[in-house]
User: Which sequence fits this backbone?
């Protein structure tokens, strides 16, 4: 039973998780590799895998009706295989009412433009996810401009990673990953030059939350989600903005399977005091309009 009354009031599970990965070996073991083991230690979780049947049931039980499942391709920078876009599309096709599927292209690969077009035109994927730290690229670098123009023309949204990453955390050299690429100011450039590109900055962008809030305020095409952080640990100013000036731009997300939906929602009930109108916006209304559902 949800501690958030508006979730229990709906006839059908209504909330939307804007940020989830696969609870399977494709993400946790193959694409994740050693840097994922580091992250799991950081989150205090054991890496074990389970299937989509169990995942969907877990979500439905707490009032979540849809989830954005993200692809992953950081092959050039990490050497790990991608979570293939075809696989993400297949999972979506198995649960078409539940999953909204976002693909991933590796901006350092020569065929990234063609792959982006194939994702939308052939696989019917609904958007793209970039993890600049794992993928090792600066989104504001002009060499990536054609990719942003292509996605802008395709008319689908993008999720960029925001802030530090737990991937590689605690390892010597952080396994070579550079956190500067998670600075949201690099995304501000992309947003300015591509006003029709709808951008969601995933996670409170620690330690650059203030920059992130400024960008979301100033750029009509930039949004953010609260994934990757349990509400107990989210910066107070972020929560204040989420309930006031940015209440039409902030969305719920977990970062499944590292953070589980029941725990996130319980803390959302415990550590925030938003009115029901703001709760509805954060938990599903803003995502419905951003995703065009
Ligand atoms: Zn994530």
Assistant:
């Amino acid at each position: 039973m949800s501690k958030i009354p508006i979730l229990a009031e709906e006839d059908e599970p209504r909330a939307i998780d804007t940020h989830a990965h696969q609870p399977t070996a494709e993400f946790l073991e193959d694409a994740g590799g050693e840097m994922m083991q580091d992250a799991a230690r950081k989150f205090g979780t054991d890496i074990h895998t389970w299937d989509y049947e169990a995942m969907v049931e877990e979500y439905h039980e707490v009032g979540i009706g849809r989830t954005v499942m993200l692809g992953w391709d950081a092959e050039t920078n990490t050497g790990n295989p991608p979570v293939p876009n075809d696989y993400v599309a297949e999972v979506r096709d198995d649960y078409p009412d539940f999953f909204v599927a976002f693909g991933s292209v590796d901006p350092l690969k020569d065929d990234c433009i063609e792959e982006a077009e194939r994702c939308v035109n052939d696989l019917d994927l609904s958007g793209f996810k970039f993890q600049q730290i794992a993928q090792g690229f600066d989104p504001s670098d002009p060499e990536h401009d054609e990719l942003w123009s292509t996605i802008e023309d395709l008319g689908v949204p993008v999720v960029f990673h925001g802030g530090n990453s737990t991937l590689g955390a605690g390892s010597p050299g952080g396994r070579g990953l550079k956190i500067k690429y998670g600075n949201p100011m690099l995304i501000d450039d992309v947003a300015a030059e591509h006003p029709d590109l709808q951008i969601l900055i995933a996670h409170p962008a620690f330690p650059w939350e203030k920059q992130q809030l400024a960008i979301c305020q100033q750029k009509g095409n930039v949004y953010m989600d609260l994934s990757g952080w349990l509400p107990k640990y989210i910066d107070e100013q972020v929560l204040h903005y989420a309930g006031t000036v940015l209440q039409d731009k902030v969305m719920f997300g977990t970062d499944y399977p590292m953070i589980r939906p029941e725990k996130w929602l319980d803390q959302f009930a415990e550590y925030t005091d938003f009115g029901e109108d703001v709760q509805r916006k954060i938990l599903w209304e803003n995502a419905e309009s951003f995703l065009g559902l």
